[in-house]
């Protein structure tokens, strides 16, 4: 019998913090800035994975976690097929890069970094449309 390949579940968290959103600069490939997030562990609920990844990469605690959308394009991650459930949350605490994040900063819609990894530029665009009450076009 042929072994079946399945996409891996991930979470990404748009953390609203101060007057913008938190992005992390990745230490590992693919390089660039990204929405904090990562792989979901076996037996781990998505919401717990989101809180864990946010804490690991940004040192922030999440409040008012809400699901935005799920992104599943097979080409969204150049390493392998992933399906990401994206959450929105308020961040509290002191922002500090950790784990596989080289840096963590707050960005606004008008001032985003040039190189953004994965499909995160589109996710960020969808988030800001959603916040303005407009349809992202999923």
What does this structure look like?
- This protein has about 140 residues and is an alpha+beta fold.
- It has a single domain, classed as Nucleoside Triphosphate Pyrophosphohydrolase (Alpha-Beta Complex), CATH 3.90.79.
- Helices cover about 20% and strands about 35% of the residues.
- It contains 2 helices and 7 strands.
- It has helices at about 45-60, 120-130; strands spanning about 10-15, 20-25, 35, 35-40, 60-70, 80-90, 100-105.
- Strands 1, 2, 3, 4, 5, 6 and 7 form a 7-stranded mixed beta sheet that branches.
- A hairpin with a 6-residue loop joins strand 2 and strand 3.
- The longest helix is centred in the middle third of the chain and has 13 residues, at about 45-60.
- The model has no long low-confidence stretch (mean pLDDT about 95).
Summary of the model, kept short:
The protein is α+β, with helices and mostly antiparallel strands and 138 residues long. Helices cover 18% and strands 37% of the residues.
Keywords:
18% helix, 138 residues, alpha+beta, seven-stranded mixed β-sheet, Nucleoside Triphosphate Pyrophosphohydrolase, 2 helices
């Amino acid at each position: 019998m042929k072994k079946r390949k399945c996409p891996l579940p991930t979470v990404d968290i748009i953390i609203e913090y101060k007057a913008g959103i938190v992005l992390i600069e990745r230490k590992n490939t693919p390089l660039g800035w990204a929405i904090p997030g990562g792989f979901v562990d076996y037996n781990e609920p998505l919401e717990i994975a989101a809180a864990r990844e946010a804490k690991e990469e940004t040192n922030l605690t999440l409040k008012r976690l809400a699901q935005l959308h799920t992104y599943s394009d097979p080409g969204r991650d150049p390493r392998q097929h992933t399906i990401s459930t994206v959450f929105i949350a308020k961040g509290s605490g002191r922002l500090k890069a950790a784990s596989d994040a080289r840096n963590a900063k707050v960005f606004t819609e008008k001032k985003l970094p040039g190189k953004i990894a994965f499909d995160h530029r589109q996710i960020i665009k969808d988030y800001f449309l959603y916040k303005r009450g407009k349809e992202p076009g999923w």
